[in-house]
Amino acid sequence: MRGVAGIVLLAAVAPAAAQDSLVSIGDQAYLTETFAGGHVSVIRYPTLGLPEIVRTGNTARAILKLPSAQGAQVTITATDDPIPIIRTLPVIGTASDPLTDTTTITFSVPADVPEDTYDLAVLVPGQGIADQQPNCFKVVAQETSTFNFVVIADPQFNDPRGIFSPSNHNPNNYNAWSIARQIKKEIRALNPTFAVLCGDLLFGLDYTYEYEGAWNLWKDTGVPIFMVPGNHDGYASTTSREIFGIPFPARDGLNDWRRMMGPTYFSFDFGGLHFQGVNSYDGPASRRDSFLIVVENYGGDLSQTQMNWIAADVAARPIVIPFLHHSPLGPYSENRSFGLTWWIINAIVRFVTSGEFWDNSQVWNTEATAAFLKALYSINAPFVFVGHEHHDDIRSYGGTVYKLVTAAATRSADYWGYGYVKVQDGAIADYLYGGTEEQSIPAGNLHVINRGTEATIRSGLSRSYDLTLEFLVQQMPSYAAAGGEVLRWAPAGDGLSRVWVRAATPVATAITAPVESMVVLNVPAPGPSSNPMSAVPTPVGGCAATEAPANAMAILTTLSLLALGWWRSHRGR
Question: What is the pLDDT of residue 333?
Answer without folding.
Answer: 75
